[in-house]
């Protein structure tokens, strides 16, 4: 009897789920987040607070910078690991990792050249800067903004798709 359940569970994760289900679940999670915290999902804020907390512990006064002047800096200094944005960030990272392992879709890839590493680091820095300028990543500034009837979500979406198109063209021409 237990073997039958194991096979059914394994079959759930052996092939991709439909996109509509992923969109539906993202919507349900966003509504749940909004109901419990009065704020939409924010992931990039968790990265900012986590890194800022680590730098503060190392003696670099990051939370004294102008960006944090409107935030509750004392609570960030004392418990940056217990901040809801950091918890959401780790939840998304570990949830993605678990789902990847369950689908048997995880594999290490060899880095082709040093240019790939350099552009990966540069792209990460630019994306991190962009999330602060655009008030969030594709979850907070796009998927949470549009259902909240915010115009900036539509502007962000157009810029995001244009940037993805241009970036993919540059990537295939110069790096891959």
TrEMBL record:
Intracellular or extracellular location(s): Cell inner membrane
Keywords, sorted A to Z: Cell inner membrane, Cell membrane, Membrane, Transmembrane, Transmembrane helix, Transport
Bilayer topology: Multi-pass membrane protein
Transmembrane segments: 17-36, 48-69, 81-104, 116-135, 141-166
Pfam family, one: Sulf_transp
Family per similarity comment: Belongs to the TsuA/YedE (TC 9.B.102) family.
Protein name, as recorded: Membrane protein YedE/YeeE
């Amino acid at each position: 009897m237990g073997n039958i359940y194991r096979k059914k569970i394994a079959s759930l994760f052996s092939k991709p789920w439909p996109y509509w289900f992923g969109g539906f679940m993202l919507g349900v999670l966003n509504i749940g987040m909004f109901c419990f915290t009065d704020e939409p999902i924010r992931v990039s804020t968790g990265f900012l607070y986590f890194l800022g907390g680590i730098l503060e512990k190392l003696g670099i006064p990051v939370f004294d910078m102008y960006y944090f002047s409107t935030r509750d800096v004392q609570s960030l200094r004392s418990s940056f690991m217990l901040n809801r944005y950091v918890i959401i960030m780790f939840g998304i990272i570990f949830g993605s990792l678990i789902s990847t392992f369950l689908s048997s879709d995880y594999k290490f890839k060899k880095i082709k050249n040093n240019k790939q590493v350099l552009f990966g680091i540069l792209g990460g820095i630019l994306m991190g800067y962009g999330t602060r300028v655009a008030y969030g990543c594709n979850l907070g500034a796009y998927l949470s903004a549009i259902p909240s009837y915010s115009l900036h979500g539509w502007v962000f979406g157009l810029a995001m798709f244009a940037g993805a198109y241009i970036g993919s063209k540059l990537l295939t021409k110069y790096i891959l």
